[in-house]
Amino acid sequence: MSGLTPHQTQAVISDDAFLVVRAGAGSGKTRVLVERYLRLVLEQGLSPRRILAATFTEKAAAEMKERVARELESRGEAERVAELNAAPVCTLHGFCSRLIAPHALELGLDPGFRILDDLEATLLQEEILTGVLARLRRDRPADLEAIVARLHWPGDFQPRRGLSPASRGFSRQFLDLVEAARCAGRGTGAPFLPLSDDPAAILAQAESLRAELAAALARMAADCSPGSQEKARLALSALERLARLPHLRHPETMQTCRELEGIRLNVCEELKSALRRVKEDLVPLLWDAFFAGDYDAVRLPLNALYQDYLQAYHARKLEQGALDFLDLEERALEILARPGLPPPVDCVLIDEAQDLNRVQWEILNRLAERAPLFIVGDVQQSIYGFRYADVDLFARAARRAREGEGKEILLEENWRSRASVLGTVNPLFLRLWQGNEEAPFLELKPSYPYPSGSDEMVELLLADGPDRAQAREAEARFLARRLEELVKGGMFRVCEEIPSDSGPPEVRFRPPAWGDVLVLVRAGSSFDPLERAFREREIPFLIQAGRGFWDALEINDFMVLLRSLEDPGDNFSLACLLVSPGVGFSCDDLLELRRYPLAAAAGEPRWETRPLFEGLTALRDSAAPGTDLPARAARFLDLFTRLYEAKDRLPLRRLLQIWIQETGLEAHWASLPDGRLKAVNVRKFLRLCDARAGEPLARLRAAFEEIRLREVREASAPDPQSGEGAVQVMTVHGAKGLEAPLVALFDLNYAPRSSGGAFTVRADGAAAFGLQSPQPGGKPFQPFLFQAMHQEAKVRRQSEDQRVLYVALTRAREKLLLTASGSEGEKGYRAAGWFKLILDHLRLEANDIFDAARVPEGPLPLFDAAGAPAGLRLLRAPDGPPAPLPRRGPAAIPAAPEEAPAGFPAPPAPGRRPVSVTEHLWGAHASLPASGVIPFEFRISEDGSLLTDESAEGGLALGLWVHRLLQVLPPDADSRRVEEAARREALPLFGRPPDPALLAEAVRLVNTFLRSPLGGDLRQARRAVREYPLLFEVDGLLLRGSLDLAFQRDDGWVLVDYKSDRRPLALSPERLAAYRAQLAFYARGWEGLTGTLPREALLFFLHTGVVEAIPMETAELERLCRQGLP
């Protein structure tokens, strides 16, 4: 135990049965855990099999086990190392699984039970909830109607037509509520509590307040103004009227409440006190009593839905022999509650205890009845409240230990950060958290002997701009410039230890590298300006977030291969596969595959359409002269058939390896500028396949689809060759447990929007909700219980928000940069979020700190309110017009997530195959148009979104090419970038470099949109999605399609359908009607998914820049849909 501090040593050797260690950031808690574990094994003789060492993640468990094994090996304890391999050094869920296994039959479980991963559990939960809602609609429609009609839905949720809340908005909120209640230990108990409805007690309180107010009025009549006396008499009259009502659900109760609420408190002080108690204590109870019956009409069905859902969910898991993670906790607790149970372990060590939920704490309490308990945690680093961690329970445990039930040990020595960093962190949070009796502030003491000689000051970088977007761009550019100065300009040096054979390690300085920099953000929306700024200054970086991996073209190509192998009749997926780089069919080839001529009638050729797979087979067996298409079709079918026949025998990894090898994809990727990254992504995808080895292809494909479409935020696989020399950019939550010599916290002025849902949940799992007003347009009713819970949740969120800031600041070892920006509005500059916390600490106003006249560009030391140095140095971005960088929407950022709208297309019911909108319109699934000719542009694309050109040679390929460019290019792309992308995307389409004239035409069409006013709107969009798959039901018909573009403005969503017809003004009425109908169907589908119609739906003709809008009234949309049918 050499090298431990006195406090660390005390934590290692203490024999108290209940020991709580509050370990501050960088205090060496992992070493303390390892040393205590070794002491239990080597000095107290405990077997590793009997010591539970529970960590928060499997990675942390593996690290701890490795360190313990290394120490045991160095001391010649080979037998103990062998025992360690089977020891419960694992997550708490891993221990629960071990505990349950021997008791599985007693619990009614399959002895070979498996554990559902998060994705499987989510899919199963949504499937079960959909079924339970369907049964509710069938068996108790009145209950479902009460939920939909009376429940108040704040935010963007709108109940669907047909009284069905089975949309993503409802299902996610309800399932989140179920998880919160289970994490709090509520189990199958009803979570929604009744309102306080004791009329006698309420009337007694009203009479007491009436008497108090009357007495106050009598005493103060001479001293109060006539206006004050009138308000008091008005309140007395209302209270007297209340006492005469037959019951509190009488309509007069509502009128009384409104009168009392309307009384203003600008009265004399004694009357004010009495009137305030009437308004704040009595009126909420009156409202609750008035609405109690209406509330129960929704509460009871919701409780029944909760219990029906859990019963069905548990039954399905039982059928499958599966448990989810919460089952592990609940079943383990059931076992531990049995009287007379032998101790499952002899000692318990728990790490990161501040992030445990209530059920996990109950497990610890049960274990502590049979074994000593050693708990390590830090209230100040609890940032997982969104996973239902209850930090108050750790704080209470520490307080119990501190007050005599055990022992509390504080690890305050920080071995990570310089004194300059902690000199900024400690005063800020001491002020924020002073007075917390449960968990007093743990002030970090700098303990690592950093030598002086480097720029140590914490810096606050400030930028401004004419609006919020441009201010953030300026902030990002200023940060990039400052990082370049520090890393490449010799202004900062990194301290590192050099091992020495003859003594302690030598501490010396070295020049920094880009890999020494960690940039943290609060939310993914901050990645956008950082990416642009770093690219502008050619700073290497890796963004560790986003959905870039699943959006990568090579991963999309794998997904269409899986869909095609699952169903070769899926024309859309097969078409995407055929034009992918591995196959290289052109759009004209697809046209040839999809159509074949029939006998001519009156000199006019007639054409028939056929599935792509049938076309491939027919063309392979033909002997078409002058073309190599039959030979290419034969090669493709040979490979595809072999894969199809082997899909249920070979693992998916092997199928994909055969595909890559025989299509020459490796050579293709190697020829691309980002080929190395593509290869890394492919290896990552193959590892994902390995992780789910043994599952059927269809299940794997569905699982991967759900990961992608449900906005799982996973980064593109990082390039291992570039990680050492690249700035790491990530969210604060992603950086928990990390540290770096130079840390920058970007976008301090960002303030997250509070997420208000239909339900609010208390820490103990109890829930409440609001009701719609019984009067149209009236104010919704929020019970007193709901308001109290909502306020409690708000306080919890604010406290956790401060802790997230604390975690971010304590990642820095030697240098810390804080950046903020602002724009001057009508009331001056506004500070929000973490920036406001810091300014409040310094007692500064945003208008003062942004005032260029008072705050110069150069370094300026800042002082706190007491005049003491704050440890911060202010730097303003230099004046002068920055290079114009227009804002672009989220869809333009390759490594950032494209946020989908609130709705989500549910999978079709078994046996129901969707029909594409286009073929529905043109009769491929019904009757052909009167002419018998299906226009060429609708023959290729299942969704009709790509090929909308006349039959001139190359026109179809041009349409596909341009659509592809508009999908991949950012809205602010200049002509040079458009041309580069066009050349790159042409190769898989044409198999050769594009014709110069055709290239110029493609660039012109793309620029027509990007430089249009609509393109400008896209650059300013809040969110955007492109080539978004739609699956929806209209008039009993299941339809599918793909939306070219949807983006969100401040006034709502805009849908855009590109059309590449050369002569849009000469379109036939039939074709124009079909275009309008297609867009009308998409608008109706959008309404079904999100609950609201888009603000606009537009046809954009790329050749001319003409925009045509369709009306957004439901009746007009239905008319257009009917009009477009043949």
Care to describe what's here?
The structure is a single chain. The chain has 1126 residues and is α/β, with parallel strands linked by helices. The chain has five domains: 6-113 and 325-411, Rossmann fold, CATH 3.40.50.300; 117-320, no CATH class; 458-544 and 725-876, Rossmann fold; 549-710, PCRA, domain 4; 915-950 and 1012-1124, Lambda Exonuclease, Chain A. The chain contains 38 helices and 30 strands. Strands 15-18-14-19-22-11-24-23 form an eight-stranded mixed sheet. A six-stranded parallel sheet has the order 3-2-6-7-1-8, sandwiched between helices. Helix 16 links the parallel strand 9 and strand 10 (445-446). Helix 3 packs antiparallel against helix 4. The N and C termini lie far apart (84 Å).
Integer tally of domains: 5
Calculate Rg over CA atoms: 33 Å
**Cα end-to-end separation:** 84 Å
Structural class: alpha/beta
Might you state the CATH topology name of the largest domain? Rossmann fold
Chain-averaged pLDDT: 81
Helix content: 40-55%
CATH superfamily label of the largest domain: P-loop containing nucleotide triphosphate hydrolases
What is the count of β-strands? 30
Shape: globular
CATH class assignment of the largest domain: Alpha Beta
Give the strand order, joined by hyphens, for the main sheet.
15-18-14-19-22-11-24-23
- Spans where pLDDT lies below 50 across 5 or more residues: 156-168, 709-724, 880-912, 924-954
The CATH architecture designation of the largest domain is 3-Layer(aba) Sandwich
